[in-house]
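Structure in, sequence out. Go:
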């Protein structure tokens, strides 16, 4: 049965290559690939008792309900079963040894190769020549993409198929930036009119706030906005805001206005977000897809109290609006549904910046027209992604080289290195999009992966990063890098008499770093430069460290949208090849459940006779640590000795009031 599934995965391509045929690649030796798994779970059988990630080839279980999959989805899920058992995968593993014999220093001498690896779409230039690839590598990666049915998976996403199997949802964030005249269906309904209905409402509302038609409770204009949200309801909008702040047209539109974010439940973040703001001039946007996220809801209540303490309860209707898919909870919170901006379950939180999640706060700050450009930029790259042949498709090439580096060459990380301060929040945003999407351990059908999926993303703008972690990426671990450069700076500073502007200086580093990583510096070169023998090992740069360079003409709302789409789609490609569900996030649940348990302990500790012990379900370590925290809290809450309650019963000593009070 199991081999039948794998055979069907292999199709006409030939017999199953079992574990005996598996030649250990470098990645396997490094431990990146965990070994081979020859057994796939039989089609049509749901995983009992497993996480909700279990879905069979013929049905999917979600929230206890088994649903039939469409024939298209059965085909796609089957294509994802054990991609590592296919001949295309194994050919790539064998190809690693060929690549390991080559050095980028030599590969870069081949101008024809560089030309092949140089791509341009709508003024976005991407240069893959510093990746450890040859033309053959690209061909083999494209073969793997075909085996994984990448084209069909992309089409399924754009066509509103429910490719998020474990949540039985379509993945249609691309519809959020679709022109009005397009049609995109899911569940038999065209979603584009709904998208534009909300966008029109955003334009209408933000125009009114910006031109002073919509005033606060005391009749003052609302010039300051605090957007409360976390994760996908925060990181994308923060990335775009940070990118736009210094763009000339956007900055003019934002004159006299303030946009702040409140994400962390830490009271320090609350204090910082509200510092210097006045309730009379502040509009609060509560952003939460579910409207249940503990941190966001507590912050929303805190800020509501801050508002109403000064302005009275009625002020909420003028000073608080919401973005959510859960309009029922918005209403229960006390926000008028008229002041709520909807989105849909087919938009994942981390993919929601083009919905009202980003469009509302950002349009309040910069005006809707500028933000519409952002949507158009994202749509432009979506169309390129949907239609261009894989070899010329920038997001596909980014995704394929990502898979090559991570899974086959055994480099698990990616450094995102924009050479502009305006993109300083790109890496934190992509960290969530990539790591929450592709940090998975099972394939679409729920069977354990035989290799490591996902990528560890981090980054910092250049040149700051150069003075921080670049030492490691030059002489320590191999970390594939993505350099992003901009031709025209948002700020042109030319000092009289200086030929090289600040921006030129910045960009010198953009070019230099990629070459330093690729070519390195050999002992022979060092000796020729009279470096003493004792220092040669320390000053040697091995080079051969892969990177991609992306060059954009300028950084405007439009190109920020393009960058977003490049990354979102790159990450989808990786997930599609690895055969995982990039659109669920069950891994964030367990911590939330345990936090709820701790929260209920804390609530109970308010009563003086509260007794906390191991029987409450915590292990010894957690009980002890938690009780230390509660003890400290007790000292703060009950400063008098008789007020101290015994909240730590693990160790009798801790039941006594702290000695300082006795
Ligand atoms: O928008 P919400 O529902 O408040 O969720 C916030 C974030 O929490 C997560 O569920 C992870 O904890 C993210 O996926 C999401 O972006």
């Amino acid at each position: 049965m199991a081999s039948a599934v794998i055979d069907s995965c292999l199709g006409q391509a030939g017999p199953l290559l079992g574990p005996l045929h598996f030649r250990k690649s470098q990645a396997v030796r490094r431990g990146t690939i965990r070994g081979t798994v020859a057994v796939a779970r039989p089609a049509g059988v749901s995983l009992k008792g497993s996480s909700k990630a279990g879905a069979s080839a013929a049905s999917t279980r979600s929230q206890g309900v088994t649903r039939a999959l469409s024939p298209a989805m059965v085909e796609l899920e089957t294509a994802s079963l054990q991609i590592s058992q296919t001949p295309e995968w194994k050919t790539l593993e064998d190809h690693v040894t060929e690549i390991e014999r080559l050095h980028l220093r030599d590969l870069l001498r081949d101008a024809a190769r560089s030309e092949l690896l140089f791509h341009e779409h709508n003024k976005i230039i991407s240069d893959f020549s510093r990746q450890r690839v040859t033309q053959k590598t690209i061909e083999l990666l494209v073969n793997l993409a075909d085996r994984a049915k990448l084209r069909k998976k992309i089409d399924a996403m754009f066509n509103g198929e429910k490719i998020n199997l474990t949540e039985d949802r379509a993945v249609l964030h691309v519809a959020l930036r679709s022109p009005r005249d397009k049609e995109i269906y899911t569940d038999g309904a065209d979603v584009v009119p709904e998208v534009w209905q909300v966008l029109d409402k955003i334009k209408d509302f933000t125009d009114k706030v910006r031109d002073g038609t919509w005033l606060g409770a005391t009749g003052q204009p609302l010039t300051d906005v605090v957007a409360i949200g976390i994760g996908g309801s925060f990181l994308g909008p923060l990335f775009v805001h940070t990118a736009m702040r210094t763009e000339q047209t956007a900055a003019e539109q934002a004159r006299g206005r303030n946009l702040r974010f409140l994400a962390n439940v830490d009271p320090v973040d609350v204090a910082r977000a509200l510092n210097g703001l006045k309730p009379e001039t502040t509009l609060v946007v509560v952003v939460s897809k579910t409207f249940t996220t503990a941190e966001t809801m507590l912050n929303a209540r805190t800020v509501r109290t801050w508002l109403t303490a000064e302005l009275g309860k009625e002020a909420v209707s003028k000073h608080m609006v919401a973005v959510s898919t859960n309009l029922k909870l918005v209403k229960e919170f006390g926000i008028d549904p008229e002041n709520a901006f909807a989105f849909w379950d087919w938009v994942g939180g981390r993919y929601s910046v083009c919905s009202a999640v980003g469009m509302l706060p950002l349009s309040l700050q910069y005006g809707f027209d500028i933000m519409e450009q952002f949507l158009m930029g994202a749509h432009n790259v979506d169309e390129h992604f949907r239609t261009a042949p894989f070899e010329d498709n920038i997001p596909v090439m980014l995704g394929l080289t990502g898979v090559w580096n991570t899974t086959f060459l055994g480099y698990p990380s990616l450094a995102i290195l924009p050479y502009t301060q305006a993109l300083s929040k790109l890496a934190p945003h992509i960290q969530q999009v990539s790591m929450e999407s592709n940090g998975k351990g099972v394939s679409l059908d729920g069977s354990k992966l035989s290799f490591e999926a996902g990528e560890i993303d981090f980054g910092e703008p250049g040149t700051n990063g150069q003075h921080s972690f670049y030492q490691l990426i030059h002489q320590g671990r191999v970390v594939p890098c993505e350099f992003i450069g901009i031709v025209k700076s948002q700020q042109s500073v030319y000092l009289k008499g200086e030929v090289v502007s600040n921006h030129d200086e910045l960009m010198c580093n953009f070019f230099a770093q990629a070459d330093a990583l690729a070519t390195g510096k050999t002992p022979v070169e060092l000796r020729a430069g009279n470096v003493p023998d004792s220092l040669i090992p320390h000053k040697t740069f091995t080079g051969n460290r892969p990177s991609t360079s992306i060059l954009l003409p300028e950084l405007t709302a439009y190109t920020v949208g393009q960058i977003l789409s490049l990354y979102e789609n790159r990450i989808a490609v990786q997930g599609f090849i690895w055969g995982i569900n990039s659109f669920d996030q069950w891994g964030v649940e367990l911590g939330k459940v345990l936090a709820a348990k701790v929260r209920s302990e804390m609530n109970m500790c308010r009563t003086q006779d509260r007794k906390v012990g191991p029987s409450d379900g915590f292990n010894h370590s957690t009980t002890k640590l938690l009780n230390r925290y509660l003890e400290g809290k007790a000292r703060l809450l009950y400063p008098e000795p008789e007020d101290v309650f015994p909240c730590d019963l693990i160790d009798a000593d801790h039941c006594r009031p702290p000695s300082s009070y006795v």
